[in-house]
Write a structure and sequence with these properties.
Elements lengths: L1 E3 L2 E2 L6 H24 L3 H20 L6 H12 L2 E2 L2 E2 L1 H8 L1 E3 L2 E3 L22 H15 L1
Antiparallel strand pairs: 1-2, 3-4, 5-6
Helix pairs in contact: 2-3, 2-4
Protein name: Aerobactin siderophore biosynthesis IucA/IucC-like C-terminal domain-containing protein
Pfam families: FhuF (PF06276)
InterPro entries: IucA/IucC-like_C (IPR022770)
Length: 143
């Protein structure tokens, strides 16, 4: 991580220790609150978090002298199904996303198209060109 002034600082402990509280003590309650107050499904919020995590980690990795730890952490966060006997919400959101060519398509629409002056994102699963692949991914996950 970049602590300040571009100095690299990796917090002690393993991936679980470094990220458990931020996921389960910060984002989980935040997503529950936003869902209850504004009707945004939690799956949409987790999908958006996975999208941002992927984007930010790639951007940060480009500026690290050795991004191996960051890449390992992100891989662990997205590919670990159970986390301290709880379901990892990042895993499920990541499993629903899919690739179409060079684009990683979100598993769940971020709902930005419902904004009066916005349209569908390039990575929106509701775009017609992504619907066939979205259906096949959903079908394979339900089996």
């Amino acid at each position: 991580m970049l602590a300040h002034c571009g100095e690299v600082n990796t917090p002690p402990g393993n991936t679980d220790d470094r990220y458990h509280d931020v996921i389960f003590e910060h984002f989980a309650p935040l997503h529950q609150y936003l869902s209850a107050q504004f009707g945004i499904p939690e799956r949409v919020l987790w999908s958006s978090l996975v999208y941002r995590l992927n984007h930010l980690s790639k951007t940060i990795a480009e500026h690290l002298p050795n991004p191996a730890q960051l890449n390992q952490d992100v891989h662990w966060l997205l590919h670990t199904k159970q986390w301290r006997s709880k379901q990892n919400p990042l895993f499920k959101a990541h499993q629903k996303s899919f690739d179409v060519g060079a684009i990683r398509v979100r598993g769940d629409c971020c709902l930005m198209h419902e904004h009066p002056v916005k349209g569908y994102c390039d990575d929106c699963p509701k775009l017609p060109q992504h619907m066939i692949k979205r259906t096949s991914v959903a079908k394979s996950l339900s089996q």
